[in-house]
Amino acid sequence: MPDFIIGEHENITGIEKQAPDRVTDNKERNQYRELDNVIQEYTKKPGQLIGILHRAQEIFGYLPEEVQAYIANKTGIPVSEVNGVVTFYSLFSTEPKGKYEIKVCLGTACYVKGAQEIMNTLKENLKIDEGETTQDKLFTLQSTRCIGSCGLAPVLLANDDVYGEIAVKDVMNIIRDYQKGDKIES
Questions:
Q1: Which residues are CB-contacts of 156 (< 8 A; sequence separation ≥ 6)?
Q2: How many Cβ atoms are within 10 Å of 86's Cβ, its own excluded?
Q3: Omega into 2 within 30° of 0, i.e. cis?
Q4: Among 16, 50, 104, 185, which is least packed by CB within 10 angstroms?
Q5: Is 0.70 surpassed by the pTM of this model?
Q6: Confidence category of residue 100, pLDDT binned at 50, 70, 90
Q7: Which residues, listed in sequence order, are joined to residue 156 by a DSSP beta bridge?
Q8: In 10 A of CB 21, how many CB atoms?
């Protein structure tokens, strides 16, 4: 695998990318080391890019341009292809997300049982729109289509926690528990 050298990869927007050896922050340096291990683990596996991107997002929390360029350089995959995959799949994010990703299912079953009211309540109380993150970086609000829990409609996800059959009156109690560092058992 080639070493990451600034200028050796395709340019996404014309901004200079940071090489891990130029990173002064220990946390970020460790993140790049972990990413190197992931890339090595996935080398020569079919469909390697999706797996690498998924793990990179777990490591960094999102996929900024410099991480995409680094992956492209280390794997030999053109950065345009890496960026194309990142921007095509909704599970990848190029923007930092909150500690808790709140997703409201707006699939048919959830929608007819009041999911839009739940979404509106969250927008109003968190003071953000769909796709945005609160200023304290605690919550990111998103909608999603059917998650396969139609029998529990309406459904709200907080990271991997599923809350079913929730009422508008319950939504802010769930949020407050996450703000306090507690979780309601789903």
A1: 102, 103, 104, 105, 118, 162, 163, 166, 171, 174
A2: 23
A3: no
A4: 185
A5: no
A6: very high
A7: 104, 163
A8: 10
> Can you tell me the distance from the alpha carbon of 162 to that of 104, in angstroms, rounded to the nearest whole number?
10
Q: What are the structure tokens assigned to 167, written together?
A: 């009422």
Residue 25: predicted pLDDT:
80
Q: Is 114 exposed, middle or buried (0-12, 13-18, 19+ CB in 10 A)?
A: middle
Structure token digits, residue 180: 């306090």
Question: What's the maximum distance between 2 C-alpha atoms anywhere in the chain?
Answer: 55
Convert the pLDDT of each residue in 26-70 to its tens digit. Answer: 889 999 999 999 999 998 788 899 999 999 999 998 999 999 999
Q: How far apart are alpha carbons 3 and 170 in whole angstroms? A: 51
Compute the CA torsion angle 43, 93, 19, 51 (nearest 10 deg).
-10
Q: What is the DSSP letter of 4?
A: P
Angle between helices 48-60 and 26-42 (to 10 degrees): 160
CATH 3.40.190.10 fits 100-180, yes or no: no
